[in-house]
Amino acid sequence: MSMPSISDASKPKILIVDDDPRNLIALERLLQKVDAEVIAANSGNKALAMTLDHDFVLILLDVHMPDIDGYEVAHLLQGEARTSGIPIIFLTAAYTDDHHKLKAYASGAVDYLEKPINDVVLLSKVRVFLELRKKEELQEVMARLAEVNRKLEDEIELRRGSEAAHRQLADTVFTAAREGIMITDAEQRVIAVNPALTAMSGYNSADAVGQLDFIRDCSRHDEDFCAALNTQLLKSDHWQGEIWCRKKCGEPFLAWFSISAIRESGGHVAKYIHVITDITQRKDDELKLWRQANFDPLTGLPNRVLFLELLSNAVADLRREGGSVALMFIDIDRFKLINDSLGHGVGDLLLQEVAIRLKACLRENDVVARLSGDEFTVILKGVHDSAHTIPVAQEIISEMAKPFIINGNEVCVGASIGISLLPQDADSASSLLRNADMAMYSAKESGRSAFAFFARQMNEKVQSVVRLSNDLRYAIDRDELQVYYQPIVDADTLETVAAEALVRWQHPRLGLVSPADFIPIAEDTGFIGPLTEWVVQRACRDAGQWRQKNDRELRVSVNLSNRHRHLENCVSLAAASLQQAGLPREALTFEITESFAMEDVERLQAIRAGGIGLAIDDFGTGYSSLSYLRRLPADVLKIDRSFVSELGTDADATMLVGSIIAIAHGLRMRVVAEGVETREQLAYLQAAGCDLLQGYFFSKPLPNAAFNDFLDRHSVSSEIDGGTVRGYAW
């Protein structure tokens, strides 16, 4: 009888394929952490050649390569019987869309990872495939052992004289196997353990032989588990699964057991062969990967992925058992202001504290998750109606209203909560979430730090906003937008020296739509970028015409939204628009809020250095400190109209306006007072040394043609009499 040759198994081989040597070096260093031999190829052709000389257990394959790409390499490998079973993981930075992913799986890939590669994720996946290969080898060993045993029994019947040869073969298999092997008698007393099991557990033959369950941690498995294991063994002569074990030093580990019964010729069980693999590291990697995919790393709360799964489970339980499920959608009021003014580090610490307070407000079986940013959700199970959610909502609002102490700073926020119930308001998990979100926005509109229940009319309002959003995208092409201009005058001469550009939308069906209605929609949909660029182009064109007609160096200012995230593009477009209109760069000013200015001072300094002006709009309503103000590259401060309106009637506001003017002048900034509406306000601001004035006292915002007429009508007058005020007839 020919006997199979069993030798010391070498390390499993992994082939890495990438035409960039830097990527190959990085992968080789990373894969040093796994017990495998790594072989590199820098092209598809070399990879195919290497598969002729080596047996690989896994291939990490780049998609985009110069000779033949990864898809073709995978296709060729799949076409050969010898290589068709090798798992292939594609790695790519260029092709990340669903079309290419499907193409990869169609060509035989088992996974598709995007560069830059997450080291933890890649190592976890590699270890999983190595473990799978070990299990395949284990099954091969088991099959070979069974075959050897069968042939041994045949040989015993045919040739009694070959027992020594059989014993030598069995000893070779037993000793050389990389997996732990334990042989027990019919009563499960240990007969022998191989060197691999000794290395794995710390128990040698003297410790183990004659013992029952010497390695299993019986405290972790109840009697039902053991009974089911034994029943399966008696029924099929085989069992496999996970068993908790304990090393000689006391350290627990999780092992994969494959147990087979060996029967005598009479049918009685003679012994059991246990093949044992330590899978602790693989399980730890799987758990780590699962936590990364399902939990928010900042707060430790379930993330959107796990939340949606838990919400679907709660809905499924409700349909089986009845009752109601309530969902709360929570948004932290003023969080963006805190984040922008105090920094993202403080914002992160605040979110961690918010998570702690939210959990403290809930029962143990309730679920709180962080969806994104400052948005949290709560699943309340076992509620009977909306009234049962009110105390919870009130407690959350009360806890969120208490000051947070972050790095020694007192930070005050609030919470707006939307509440929806299933089956009362929704028929699915997705509609329940959507309705709670709509209710949250209703709570914000009612004044923040409040809660609101979903109502059917909210959905109608959302549909209206969606329609308006769709119409807005075509407003430029349909010539429905106009730029209005409000004059800015010199406080000493009352001569118009600039104008603020304000966009207006003449909707064909709704008439004039307020900027308060469509600007937030533009910000939320990303249309704010194209809209701003259109306003900049139109404002530069019109300002060029003013200068030619009036022979005056009039400036124009354009507001930039806090949500505008492509500032460099806007500045490049502005430079081109100014050049086309024949204007110098100082003819244009961007107006930005305090929070926007503090968000990226360096980038704004570069813009200011290019000659375009910067004005801090609505100054006094934000949280900027004097140290921040000193760093800002702005050359103009605009005092918010809320302070100007109280001049002469509120002593604090009057003093504050004077202080702002003095501070701005000390920082070599000019000051614009917004919202000037009375002669008294004008007189005070002139006396306080304000540089520029803007408001309805001079003019409301005007279309371009009307603004040109305004410039023609308001010529300098050298006398002050009747209705004239320091040089202009108003």
TrEMBL record:
<keyword id="KW-0597">Phosphoprotein</keyword>
<feature type="domain" description="Response regulatory">
    <location>
        <begin position="13"/>
        <end position="130"/>
    </location>
</feature>
<dbReference type="Pfam" id="PF13426">
    <property type="entry name" value="PAS_9"/>
</dbReference>
<dbReference type="InterPro" id="IPR035965">
    <property type="entry name" value="PAS-like_dom_sf"/>
</dbReference>
<dbReference type="InterPro" id="IPR001610">
    <property type="entry name" value="PAC"/>
</dbReference>
<feature type="coiled-coil region">
    <location>
        <begin position="131"/>
        <end position="158"/>
    </location>
</feature>
<dbReference type="Pfam" id="PF00563">
    <property type="entry name" value="EAL"/>
</dbReference>
<dbReference type="InterPro" id="IPR000700">
    <property type="entry name" value="PAS-assoc_C"/>
</dbReference>
<feature type="modified residue" description="4-aspartylphosphate">
    <location>
        <position position="62"/>
    </location>
</feature>
<dbReference type="InterPro" id="IPR001789">
    <property type="entry name" value="Sig_transdc_resp-reg_receiver"/>
</dbReference>
<dbReference type="InterPro" id="IPR029787">
    <property type="entry name" value="Nucleotide_cyclase"/>
</dbReference>
<dbReference type="InterPro" id="IPR052155">
    <property type="entry name" value="Biofilm_reg_signaling"/>
</dbReference>
<dbReference type="InterPro" id="IPR001633">
    <property type="entry name" value="EAL_dom"/>
</dbReference>
<dbReference type="InterPro" id="IPR043128">
    <property type="entry name" value="Rev_trsase/Diguanyl_cyclase"/>
</dbReference>
<dbReference type="InterPro" id="IPR000014">
    <property type="entry name" value="PAS"/>
</dbReference>
<keyword id="KW-0175">Coiled coil</keyword>
<dbReference type="Pfam" id="PF00072">
    <property type="entry name" value="Response_reg"/>
</dbReference>
<dbReference type="GO" id="GO:0003824">
    <property type="term" value="F:catalytic activity"/>
</dbReference>
<dbReference type="InterPro" id="IPR035919">
    <property type="entry name" value="EAL_sf"/>
</dbReference>
<dbReference type="Pfam" id="PF00990">
    <property type="entry name" value="GGDEF"/>
</dbReference>
<dbReference type="GO" id="GO:0000160">
    <property type="term" value="P:phosphorelay signal transduction system"/>
</dbReference>
<dbReference type="InterPro" id="IPR011006">
    <property type="entry name" value="CheY-like_superfamily"/>
</dbReference>
<feature type="domain" description="EAL">
    <location>
        <begin position="465"/>
        <end position="715"/>
    </location>
</feature>
<feature type="domain" description="GGDEF">
    <location>
        <begin position="323"/>
        <end position="456"/>
    </location>
</feature>
<feature type="domain" description="PAC">
    <location>
        <begin position="239"/>
        <end position="291"/>
    </location>
</feature>
<feature type="domain" description="PAS">
    <location>
        <begin position="162"/>
        <end position="211"/>
    </location>
</feature>
<dbReference type="InterPro" id="IPR000160">
    <property type="entry name" value="GGDEF_dom"/>
</dbReference>
<protein>
    <recommendedName>
        <fullName>Diguanylate cyclase</fullName>
    </recommendedName>
</protein>
